[in-house]
Please model this.
Amino acid sequence: MPIDSDLSINVSKFMTESISEQTAKHNEYLIDLAKNGPTWWEVGPAKYREMRENGETQFPKPTIIEAGQNISLPSREQGRDVPCRLMLPVSGKPKAVIMHIHGGGWVLSSEKSIDPLLKGIADAANVVMISIGYRLAPEHPFPAGPEDCFDAAEWLVDNAEARYGAPLKIIGGESAGGHLTALSTFHLQKTRPNFHLRGLLFTFGVFDLSLLPQTKIFSKKLVLTPEIMTRFVDACCPGFSCEQLKEPSISPFYQDLKGMKLPSALFTCGTEDPLLEDTMMMALRWQMTGTEGIVKIFPGAPHGFIAYSQQLDLAKECLHVILEYIVDKVS
Model:
């Protein structure tokens, strides 16, 4: 008699034959595109940030929209605030405030990187979106970026309802933003123990800066490679040993989750992403606490794929899942 496993996954999502022709062609396009440009460490982070803003890299040029407002939140350092981007819903009293933390390997992008996406969510879910412009490495290495996110999160816990008409209910981010989302969540468990988030968004997040096997052996030069990931980590945490990178204050994968009142979390990732194991393993640890950890896997999707919603059906599908989750958690 067959033995039923206590753990099961939808294996079909991970099979090569599940990758659509559209996704496969787009991945080939991204690989070819990366061959023509320099890396951020070759030209320097400041120059590469400028190139991304001008649409001169493999990522689409960011669209800055007039509806976005530049604001700032207080930081722990006297005389310095944390720059943020505010998106208000088009109408009605907002149901929640969502704190967004952008990706970019702790080195690239900004709070203005995905204006249209944040405004779309604000309007569709009737929420206030606030994207955090945390300090970037290598100019500002660890713990500068996380501390900016901690300061913003604490301020929003204490002041969001009075300032924006709704409480902070969700924190979320992509890639490095997923990492900072986890660190911010665990930080609030210590400093605001009576506050409870309704949900978290981990979009192709990284949770182990010492790098899980998939991140080290990923062989395709598709958006995020082992070398790029190592360069990002070195910029964020210069001179840190492997053991130091495993500290829970740096890599949330090693956080002791026992006894924590964790919120629900949505984990999304593509199968052609070197951070796939980060998503799978962190989600498993989340579920093992008895907390809701929803995992949605997208066959063939590369790292950062939601940036290509005009080209990829999978990106549209993922964004729909994220919006559905938000609507459910803020209602």
About this structure: The beta strands are 69-74, 81-87, 96-101, 127-132, 168-174, 199-203, 264-272, 293-302. The chain is about 40% helix and 15% strand. The mean pLDDT is 97. The radius of gyration is 19 Å.
